[in-house]
Input
Amino acid sequence: MTAPPIPAVADGGSPAAAPPPARRRTALRVLAALPVAAAGVATILVMDLFRHGEALLTAWSLENLLGRAAKVFPAEDVFYYQAARGAIPVWGGFTITEECSAAWFVGGVLLVTALLLAVWRRAGAGRLLVAGSVTVVLLVVVNTARMVLITEATVHWGESGFGWSHTVGGSILMIATLCLCALLFARIALLSRTRRTRAEHP
Output
């Protein structure tokens, strides 16, 4: 009786030396998840820097999109805007507090993306990264638009404009954005994969 032949291995090693493809893919996904998770944790831990960036982005939007003079001083989470032009310009300013910042949402999205990358192999890694990136960009853009809206409403209608734009309009806008982000994330990362699987295995 003869033993069955041992399959040849391209690199000259033993068959046991090559890790299974599934294990190799899992290791690669975990490695990809680590920087995403680190970015999520950093966003929350260094929220002051994130809010400073939001102030810079809001001031840039006011100046370049609406033509309203605006500025941000170094290491501050406050953006100043010119409320009225004239011989003596009138300036106002808003502080981007933790409650008004998108940092919690952005950090949460990054952490969820990292978790799904590490543990849920049914969702493609590329799609998860794209879904997380699109969601983060959408959150930052909409929250910046909300800051611009509050600023313009305050300039034109004073405290009443601030109250309505901040409490009512801004809250509705962010709730709608969060719902849209959840649907968009699922559509990019999860639903497309499910539909493709059903098409392949009807």
Summary: The beta strands are 70-71, 78-84, 90-95. Helices lie at 21-45, 47-66, 103-119, 125-200. The first helix runs from residue 21 to 45. The CA atoms of residues 26 and 121 lie 8 Å apart.
